[in-house]
């Protein structure tokens, strides 16, 4: 079934703005669609500058945290960085570790086991760190809900600093400093709204700002030493990896970090990161957001999903070239194992959904549980289930009376709020509106499923389940010149908040016959024509539409423009997303 196309209205000022900004009208329309109608906004978006990053002093808690960390470094106190096991946490830990190591700190890191401990600041873990001599613990990408662990550390005289960006609970942990882009405190330990201009800073972005603030504190000036400046420059690719992988909006200073981090990535001086690029086949040329999402992030995440994330942290911190290549090989193997397990779970889940009619019109949410599913992979599979069935989905891995779940949302459905509404059936839960995790007793799975589906049925209408396809503009094929499509690359990196540009055509004609291509013939290659212009199109996984296209001979196409270079000649082609046929 064709998706519901949502086409942005044409901007009457695109031609004038294009001349003023020095871009094609197509790019001017794209900038306008992203809320950038003023010259200064467009210029800063097209050419983001590091000097436009907000000073660390503006980030709530950053100056207090920097002062405490600098005092600990000067006093030789034992510092432990406690980070999350995903890419955002891994890279954030590496950023702070590198800054503190440069300062000569007595510093180590700790990352919880994804399967045994799960997400967050754990009382048992911090008790062990305290007993091992930790005097200051700094969290990265976690901790804002760790009230119990914070109390334990306070009793043992261990200083705690929390750096996080996740949703807080009703009360904040007692800590020496809490660094969070969305939070200040009301003076009584309760969360209060922050006025920081970028509330969507990632966990690694927060760590970068804290590292910058620590460098300023240690140098005694806003302008840091050359040595520290080099460390922070080397940290930009790490911040970019975490920012892109965590799917935060790639606008404002997130865009600055991502853009400059991707620029620095191919020439990184970090041996482990260079080994990761080599393993992913990205050691030459440029690296874009798609490379991060599909090649680099999965390898780093595989460490925690299939083994332990500390291996990935070692890669980005202590590893030399030889050790980096060794770890990169292990991560490659882990990622391949993850892909195999993912395919198995996805196939099993789809069979259950179809067999039990769990995606019927009367069920607008999906909950499935199995003792045979690997808990480190179910989040990825949940995302694929959402893509196939257009419903918010929770998958749960059960073991010895306990269940560990991971969910992904669909459309505007707030997953975290839905879990909050079902909290009586859960042991713990946390996350974001779009992705969340939970724990519960196996005996509560059935009641939770009923409650979650009920929430989804009440908050989603049938029309909400029809996938929407956002389209930037309807364009004639003649508008897709080499120059215009090449200029689109200036909008990179694409992601949340800055989606990859997508266009649609009017009614265009089929030229020749569509061809089914690929090893299994699942892709479709076509040639379209419109008013004398011709353009090739490739539809991955769209071979099933070939017969409809042969029958109708004309269609409207939704697509992403791509540049294809073959035998030294570059042409514009269409990466097909959807087709509409005459009724």
What topology emerges from the helices and strands here?
Blueprint: E1 4-7, H1 14-21, H2 25-33, H3 39-46, H4 62-74, E2 78-83, H5 87-102, E3 106-110, H6 123-131, E4 136-140, H7 147-155, E5 159-163, E6 177-179, E7 183-185, E8 191-193, H8 203-219, H9 226-245, H10 252-264, H11 271-279, H12 289-306, H13 310-316, H14 321-355, E9 366-370, H15 378-389, E10 393-399, E11 402-408, H16 415-421, E12 428-431, E13 435-441, H17 445-459, E14 468-471, E15 473-474, H18 482-488, E16 503-504, E17 508-510, E18 515-517, E19 523-530, E20 533-539, H19 546-552, E21 554-566, E22 569-580
Parallel strand pairs: 1-14, 2-3, 2-4, 4-5, 5-6, 9-10, 15-16, 20-22
Antiparallel strand pairs: 7-8, 10-11, 11-13, 12-13, 16-21, 17-19, 17-21, 18-19, 19-20, 21-22
Helix pairs in contact: 1-2, 4-8, 5-8, 5-9, 5-13, 6-7, 8-9, 9-10, 9-12, 11-14, 12-14, 13-14, 14-15
How would you describe what is shown here?
The protein is of the alpha/beta class and 583 residues long. The chain has three domains: 4-47 and 469-580, OB fold (Dihydrolipoamide Acetyltransferase, E2P); 52-329, inorganic pyrophosphatase (n-terminal core), CATH 3.90.1640; 344-465, Diaminopimelate Epimerase, Chain A, domain 1 (Roll), CATH 3.10.310.30. Helices cover 41% and strands 20% of the residues. It contains 19 helices and 22 strands. A five-stranded parallel beta sheet has the order 3-2-4-5-6, with helices on both faces. A five-stranded mixed beta sheet has the order 9-10-11-13-12, with helices on both faces. Strands 17-19-20-22-21 form a five-stranded mixed beta barrel. A hairpin with a 3-residue loop joins strand 12 (428-431) and strand 13 (435-441). Helix 9 (226-245) crosses helix 10 (252-264). The longest helix has 35 residues, at 321-355. The protein is globular. It starts with a strand and ends with a strand. The mean pLDDT is 94.
């Amino acid at each position: 079934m064709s998706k519901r196309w949502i086409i942005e209205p044409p901007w009457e000022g695109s031609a004038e703005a294009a001349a003023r900004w020095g871009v094609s009208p197509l790019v001017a329309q794209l900038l306008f669609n992203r809320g950038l109608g003023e010259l200064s906004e467009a210029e800063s978006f097209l050419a983001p500058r590091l000097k436009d990053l907000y000073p660390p002093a503006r980030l709530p808690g950053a100056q207090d945290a920097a002062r405490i960390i600098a005092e600990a470094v000067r006093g030789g106190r034992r510092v432990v960085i406690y980070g999350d096991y995903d890419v955002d946490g891994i890279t954030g830990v590496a950023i702070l570790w590198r800054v503190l190591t440069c300062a000569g700190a007595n510093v180590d890191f700790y990352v919880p086991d994804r399967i045994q401990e799960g997400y967050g600041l754990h009382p048992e873990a911090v008790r062990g760190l305290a007993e091992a001599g930790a005097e200051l613990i700094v969290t990265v990408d976690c901790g804002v809900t760790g009230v119990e662990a914070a109390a334990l550390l306070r009793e043992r005289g261990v200083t705690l600093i929390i750096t996080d960006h996740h949703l807080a609970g009703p009360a904040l942990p007692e800590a020496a400093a809490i660094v969070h882009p969305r939070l200040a405190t009301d003076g009584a330990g309760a969360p209060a709204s922050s006025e920081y201009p970028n509330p969507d800073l990632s966990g690694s972005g927060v760590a970068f700002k804290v590292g910058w603030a620590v460098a300023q504190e240690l140098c005694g000036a806003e302008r840091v030493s050359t040595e520290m400046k080099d460390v922070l420059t080397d940290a930009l690719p790490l911040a970019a990896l975490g920012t892109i992988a965590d799917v935060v909006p790639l606008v404002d200073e997130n865009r600055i970090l991502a853009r400059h981090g991707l620029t620095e990535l191919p020439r990184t001086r970090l041996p482990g990161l260079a080994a990761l690029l080599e393993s992913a086949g990205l050691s030459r040329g440029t690296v874009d957001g798609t490379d991060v999402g599909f090649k680099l992030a999965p390898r780093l995440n595989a460490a925690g999903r299939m083994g332990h994330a500390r291996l990935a942290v070692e890669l980005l911190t202590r590893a030399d070239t030889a050790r980096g290549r060794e770890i990169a090989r292990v991560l490659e193997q882990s990622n391949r194992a993850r892909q195999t397990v993912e395919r198995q779970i996805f196939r099993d889940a789809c069979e259950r959904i179809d067999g039990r009619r769990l995606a019927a019109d009367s069920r607008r949410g999906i909950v499935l549980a199995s003792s045979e599913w690997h808990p480190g992979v179910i989040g990825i599979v949940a995302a694929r289930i959402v893509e196939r069935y257009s419903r918010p989905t929770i998958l749960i891995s059960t073991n010895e009376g306990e269940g560990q779940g991971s969910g992904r949302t669909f459309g505007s459905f707030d997953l975290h709020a839905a879990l909050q509404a079902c909290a009586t059936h859960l042991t713990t839960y946390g996350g974001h509106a779009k992705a969340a995790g939970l724990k519960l007793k196996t005996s509560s799975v059935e009641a939770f499923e009923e409650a979650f589906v009920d929430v989804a049925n009440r908050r989603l209408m049938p029309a909400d389940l029809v996938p929407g396809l956002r389209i930037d503009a309807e364009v004639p094929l003649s508008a897709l010149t080499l120059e215009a499509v090449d200029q689109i690359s200036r909008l990179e990196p694409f992601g949340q908040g800055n989606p990859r540009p997508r266009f649609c055509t009017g009614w265009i004609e089929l030229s020749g016959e569509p061809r089914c291509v690929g090893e299994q013939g699942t892709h479709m290659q076509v040639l379209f024509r419109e008013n004398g212009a011709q353009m090739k199109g490739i539809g991955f996984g769209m071979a099933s539409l070939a017969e409809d296209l042969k029958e109708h001979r004309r269609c409207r196409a939704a697509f992403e423009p791509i540049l294809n270079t073959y035998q030294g000649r570059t042409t514009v082609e269409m990466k097909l997303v959807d087709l509409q046929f005459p009724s």
